[in-house]
Structure formats: C-alpha cells, structure tokens
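Why do we bother with holo predictions? Because pocket geometry can differ from the apo form. Keep that in mind while you read this record for glycine.
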Amino acid sequence: MQTRKVSFSRQTTNFYFGATFSDIKNFSSQKTTVLITDENVFAAHKKLFKSWNVIVLDPGEEYKVQATVDSIIQQLIEMKADRTWTLIGVGGGVITDMTGYVASVFLRGLSFGFVPTTLLGMVDAAIGGKNGIDVGLFKNMVGTITQPSFLLYDVSLLKTLPDNEWYNGFAEIIKHAAIMDAAMFKELEKRSVSFFQKGKPALQALVQRNALLKAKVVKEDEFEKGRRRLLNFGHTLGHALEKQCELMHGEAVAIGMAFAAKLSGDLIGFKGADRLVRLIEQYHLPVSTHYDKEKAFHLLVSDKKKEGEQINFILLEKLGKAVSKKISLPEIYKAI
Ligand code: GLY
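The structure, written out:
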C-alpha cells in the first residue's frame, strides 16, 4: 500500500493506493464506524461487510435525494452515532456523494472516508469534496464541499463491474487526458478497455495517475473559482442530457465532450476534435444522441455554471489544454 497525502483548505486527505478493503480496520474502529453502501455493492461483496455497522441503500441516481439522506440520518440516530463516529461510503458516486453530504451535516459534521468501488468513483466521483443530492431534474443542486479524511483504493473491487461501468469511468479518464495530460491521451490511444481490465499494474497506475491529477486541480482551486472549472469539460451539455435521455454519467459526458470539442473548433480554432471523437468511440462511448433541444437548453441555463446571461463553457485549445470561456446564451442555443 502506498499513501499519498493531499492537503486541502480544512482537511488533509490520505489516498491509500494499492490497498485492500480489510486495511480499513487499521485506521477506523469497527465500533464507531458505519459503512454506507447500496444493495448491489453489498450483494457483490457481502463478506467484506461482516462485523461492521452497515447501512444499505437502494441503488441508483434516483435515490440521491433528500428522502434518502433523511433515512440515513434516522438510522444513525437509532445506532446512537455521535460526533466521534466515522462514516465510510463504499460504492460508486451516488454512495460517496450522499455519505459525504450526510457526514458534513449530521451533528454539524463527522469525519468520513470513501472506498470507491467503480472506476468512475476511483478517478473522479469520490475525489474533490463536492457532496450532495439531486433536486428534480437538477443534478447536485444541493450540497457541500467537504473533503474526506481518506480514500482507499482496492482495484480488485472492480472485478465484478459490468463492462458499461468500465466505459463510464473511461469517460472521465479521457476528459482528464483531453484537458490536462497530452501524454496520457497518446497512451490511451494505444490501449483499450480490455488492456486495462486484464492488467492490474497498468490499471493501478492509470487509476492513481487520474486520482492525483484530479486531486491536484481541486487542491489548487477547491471552491471552484477558476482552474477547477476545467473539470467541467463535457459536463455542461452532459448534465443537461443525462436525466432527460436516461444516459449513464460517462455516456452523457462523452457526448458533451464531443459537442464541446466541435464548438472549440468553431470558436477558438481547436484542431483535435476528430482525434477526441475517435478516442471516445475506441472506449465504447457515444458521441451523439437525439434530444429535446428546448428541454436541454432549459436545464443548461439553470445549471450552476451560469453567470448572468453567459455560461462559463470549457473549450479545448489543444489536446491536453483546456480553457474556460464565457459564452452567451443565444450562442449556446444556436450550437446545441
Ligand atoms: N465529488 C466529486 C467532486 O468533488 O468533484
């Protein structure tokens, strides 16, 4: 196991890479820890949860809502959890988001950690401290920015992951490559999903590289005033399509990236859109879909990235370098 510490404004987070699930016992007491997971993860890894306090939730983004938060809090009260307890989210982004959110507000804040069990969670969703819930069609409309005290990486948990969940994670990996790591972009072009599924050292290295890339951007701009916005590449249209078109997050982001790459070509002369589209397709992700333009525009302008009559939109200058540009709402309407 390799520990990398990243210091954020109010919390240092330990990243335990190359770990195994059972290592949790070494830094969290079973008596005063609650593992929060969902039915799918619980069923796939039942043995791991033995002798821990566990809260098992219904799986899926539709449960990332206030009613689920209330039910977790009710269960914590029944367990007599106090401020000395620790919550550990074991699962994908829905679980880590809700665990972080509950831990930030229950008794005005408990310590918490994450064991991401999806590729998307490992490279993106569990990192960054933004924890929250959806409200209606609006993703992540309510939440906090509070950092976990640790993230534990056990890539053997990915063995039970269906292929579409692997593709989902690769969308965010491709995003990191496109916005800030040209060398990784080239490496991904030479590889495939099955290469990483079969090769544990290559997978571990890829996961660690992406987790630390994201952590570095967050550390530089934890409260998203500038550089962190670059991580929204592909997410502005992506979020507007995700629920409307019932897409997985990675699929929506992949379509959003293809759109943003084309827009980058039109607005700032970006030349790499074809290469990005090819890479997205190479990792089994979509680059377009049918959608209701009016609905998408309505969601897009209600997004958190809107400032007055403009949207902060992330474009690519070249592969490996993104920029944030303010784009007027009529311009966006025309483009979608
Ligand atoms: N929880 C994901 C993020 O903070 O970006």
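The chain has two domains: 2-160, 163-335.
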